[in-house]
Amino acid sequence: MKSLARQLSWGLMALLSIAIAIVFAGPYLSFNPAVSRVGLNPAIPIHFVVLAIHAGTAGIALLIGPFQFLTRLRARYPLAHRTIGRIYLICIFIGSVFAFFSALFSVSGFVAQVGFAFLATIWFYSASKAYRAIRQRQIQLHRVWMIRNYALTFAAVILRLWLLLGQYALHLPFTDVYVTSAWISWILPLVVAEWFINQRLLQSLALKKDRASSLQQEIRV
Fold first, then answer.
1. Residues 64, 87: contact at Cβ < 8 Å?
2. Which of 153, 129, 136, 137 lies closest to 17 in space, CA to CA?
3. C-alpha to C-alpha distance for 71 and 57, rounded to whole angstroms
4. Where do the TM regions start and end (predicted)?
């Protein structure tokens, strides 16, 4: 039952990620300002270019990210896992830097600017921690940081879902919904990620350590 629930959860995550990446990030690859769904700052001529680079790299990361959590892929095709992982991290490093500047250029107000800038900062930070961990062969720590990082990448999905909910279900003004999305979009998935890390990883590692300690004590006795 738990296995089925995990598969369904992964499938929903992958489906939403792919859909958002194609529908919302894809059009930015044309580099046509007319496709922008975000208000552009007329005082910053390069605002759309910055936004497009962020959308393109983030879209790729969002698209390929779910497949890095497939245990079978990691076990059977480690080279593919490493290659996809490198592409993912490169996209995050580029996308987060451009996301930060895009946040500063935002015309949605100070609260939204701070929210998106904070997201870009911890997005970059978590990716750098994941990269450092794998370079040091700290597999479990790498996995923890990658879960956190993809939760922040998944903010792109939560943002769109919150916009739909706020506008069409709650009938809130678009400006209010968009400003709150600058915070809800990454706080919510990050909380879920921390719950998952605690329930599925940390507790499991703690139990294994306790069992190993008990076994050693029995052997000594």
1. yes
2. 153
3. 25
4. 12-31, 43-64, 85-104, 110-127, 147-165, 177-197
* Alpha-carbon distance values, 58 to 21, 49, 94 (Å): 8, 14, 9
pLDDT at 207: 54
Rg (CA), the chain: 20
* Rounded Cα gap, residues 181 and 162, in angstroms: 7
> In whole angstroms, what is the distance from residue 169 CA to residue 166 CA?
6
Phi, psi of 97, rounded to the nearest 5 degrees: -65, -45
pLDDT digits (tens, 9 = 90+) for 179-201: 999 999 999 999 999 998 888 76
User: Which residue reads 């962020």 in tokens?
Assistant: 54
Query: Please, which pLDDT band fits residue 209 given cuts at 50, 70 and 90?
Result: low
pTM of the model: 0.88
CB contact at 8 A, 155 and 192: no
Report the share of the chain in percent with pLDDT over 70: 90
200-207's contacts with Cβ under 8 Å and 24+ in sequence apart are 201/140, 201/143, 201/144, 201/147, 205/140
